[in-house]
């Protein structure tokens, strides 16, 4: 429990660090304005369509918008790799603001509905470069992997808040003003976002005057725009990641249907019950952000992502088996929690795996695939409900996605071990004393190492002193002495300091640097729990200690 509380404290500290970073603070607040505007605008457009064409108009307009976004997003994302991403975001916000203000004027003047619909589709398309550019800009502003993950958590949390705040504000404004006023509010959120992004100061001044990254040699616009897909298809790690992400979005698309089917058909809850279930989904999403950040400290981004996808799918089997209000609420909380874990880890992995030159296009390709997956799920679920019923439909969707995660877990582990393993892991593997420890234990120890530099002639261990650190030599050499007598000379891959920790005694010898020295140290708090109970390690340690004590 204390370890969990420590991780949660570290998580909240990381989030505070994000907002202490001026560039990330502006970027996150801008994203908040943009996402609230997006959702408020979606509600306003839906209300206008319903007033002028009923549910059919709402559905047709929604399909057109999503299909258009799926087609255009990969091409629009090219802008983020050809031009400064900050300016692409500003242009996206400014264009949407102008179009929304024009839409407000058209509605107020009673223009034909088709004109308003067409403008709504164009406005959505103009927003498509924003998210991929924003996700690609975060690594340029973040100080290290920890802050990168924390920033993605902040983005996920803001996204969840915007999902509720945007429609809520739109509903409030519709209750007291007019549809045109909601459009004006939407336009102001985009102005807010553009102003904040414009104030971000890039670390490299040349980013303001040159493209963010040079693309590969030109082979035409279609080839350049499809570079994100080629990058994904050419990397087995990205193929696995995006494939499982699409499996999750198929379930997410199906949720647009099964949420209603569970509330109305399975549990007979009515409108208020549907609202209750959606609220529990939001609660899970908020908590999930902190959980994702705490899990990220373990360094298993890909496996955490896989677990998140699994928890997006497997809980559906619980509702199918035991349909009740309590089960449905618990499942919705788990889905919301898993959604944040999936999004945070997916974005962080893409930011760390993808080359800078094509990052925006890879995010654009991913967004297109996500939209496609949601469309498949939204079309599949009604067919399943109509043919085999809601409970078996939930079983098919949940079991199918879960099976894909189980099949892909080995590949996700490979991504963690090969791509995201700390560089010091290889050093620990080479240490004879530690080589018998399980791989997960070694990974944990590698992430807890403290780098220490020691000058020539300096003694970092003195005979008789209390011992609280175990040292592995990364570079340089040392002399081990006792009462002025040299016992041994050690170099890279050797270790010192284990006797005092494992036997809980004072230091038995003095260790002095004979050249410029780089050490990787483990404190007692991490070293002792990691090796306690490891039978093979204890035997090796006892033998090593006996040998060294015999030299004294």
Describe this structure in words.
- This protein is of the alpha+beta class and 552 residues long.
- It folds into 3 domains: 23-141 and 166-201, Growth Hormone, Chain: A (Up-down Bundle); 223-420, MFS general substrate transporter like domains (Growth Hormone, Chain: A, Up-down Bundle), CATH 1.20.1250.20; 425-551, Sandwich (Jelly Rolls), CATH 2.60.120.
- It has 22 helices and 8 strands.
- It has helices spanning 2-20, 22-76, 78-82, 85-108, 113-126, 128-141, 144-176, 179-198, 221-225, 227-233, 236-266, 270-296, 301-313, 315-321, 325-353, 359-388, 390-419, 425-429, 439-447, 498-503, 524-531, 535-551; strands spanning 450-454, 459-461, 469-475, 478-482, 485-490, 495-496, 510-513, 517-523.
- It has a 4-stranded antiparallel β-sheet with strand order 1-8-3-6. A 4-stranded antiparallel β-sheet has the order 2-7-4-5, with no helix packed on it.
- A hairpin with a 2-residue loop joins strand 4 (478-482) and strand 5.
- The radius of gyration is 28 Å and the shape is elongated.
- The two termini are 42 Å apart.
- Mean pLDDT is 79; it is low at 1-8 and 205-218.
């Amino acid at each position: 429990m204390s370890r969990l509380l420590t991780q949660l404290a570290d998580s909240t500290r990381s989030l505070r660090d994000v907002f202490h970073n001026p560039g990330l603070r502006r970027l996150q607040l801008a994203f908040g304005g943009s996402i609230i505007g997006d959702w408020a605008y979606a509600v306003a457009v839906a209300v206008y369509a319903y007033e002028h064409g009923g549910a059919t108009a709402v559905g047709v307009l929604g399909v057109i918008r999503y299909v258009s976004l799926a087609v255009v997003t990969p091409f629009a994302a090219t802008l983020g790799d050809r031009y400064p991403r900050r300016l692409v975001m500003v242009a996206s916000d400014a264009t949407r603001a102008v179009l929304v203000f024009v839409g407000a004027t058209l509605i107020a003047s009673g223009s034909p509905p088709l004109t308003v619909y067409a403008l709504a589709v164009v406005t959505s398309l103009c927003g498509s470069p924003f998210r991929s550019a924003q996700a690609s800009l975060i690594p340029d502003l973040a100080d290290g992997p920890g802050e990168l993950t924390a920033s993605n958590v902040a983005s996920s949390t803001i996204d969840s808040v915007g999902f509720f705040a945007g429609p809520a504000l739109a509903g409030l404004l519709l209750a007291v003003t007019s549809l045109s006023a909601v459009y004006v509010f939407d336009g102001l959120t985009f102005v807010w976002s553009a102003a904040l992004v414009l104030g971000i100061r890039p670390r490299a001044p040349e980013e303001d005057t040159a493209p963010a990254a040079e693309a590969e040699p030109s082979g035409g616009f279609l080839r350049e725009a499809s570079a994100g897909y080629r990058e994904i298809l050419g990397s087995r790690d990205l193929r696995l990641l995006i494939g499982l992400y699409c499996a999750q979005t198929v379930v997410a698309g199906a949720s647009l249907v099964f949420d209603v089917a569970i509330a109305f058909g399975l549990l007979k809850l009515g409108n208020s019950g549907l609202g209750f279930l959606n609220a529990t989904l939001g609660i899970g999403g908020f908590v999930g952000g902190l959980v994702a950040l705490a899990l990220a400290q373990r360094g298993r981004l890909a496996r955490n992502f896989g677990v998140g996808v699994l928890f997006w799918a497997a809980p559906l089997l619980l509702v199918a088996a035991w349909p009740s209000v309590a089960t449905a609420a618990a499942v919705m909380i788990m889905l919301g929690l898993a959604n944040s874990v999936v999004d945070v880890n997916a974005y962080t992995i893409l930011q760390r795996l993808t080359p800078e030159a094509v990052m925006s296009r890879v995010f654009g390709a991913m967004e297109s695939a996500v939209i496609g997956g949601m469309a498949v799920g939204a079309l599949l679920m009604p067919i399943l409900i109509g043919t085999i019923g809601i409970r078996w439909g939930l079983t098919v969707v949940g079991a199918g996605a879960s099976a894909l995660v189980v099949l892909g877990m080995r590949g996700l582990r490979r991504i963690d071990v090969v791509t995201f393993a700390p560089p010091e892991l290889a050093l620990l593997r080479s240490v004879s004393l530690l080589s018998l420890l399980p791989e997960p234990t070694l990974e944990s120890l590698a992430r807890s190492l403290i780098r220490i530099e020691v000058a020539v002639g300096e003694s970092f261990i003195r005979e008789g002193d209390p011992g609280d650190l175990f040292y592995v030599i990364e570079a340089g050499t040392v002399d081990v002495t006792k009462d002025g007598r040299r016992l041994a000379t050690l170099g890279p891959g050797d270790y010192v300091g284990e006797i005092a920790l494992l036997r809980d005694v004072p230091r038995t010898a003095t260790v002095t640097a004979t050249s410029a020295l780089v050490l990787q140290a483990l404190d007692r708090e991490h070293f002792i729990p990691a090796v306690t109970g490891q039978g093979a390690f204890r035997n090796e340690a006892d033998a090593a200690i006996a040998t060294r004590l015999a030299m004294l």
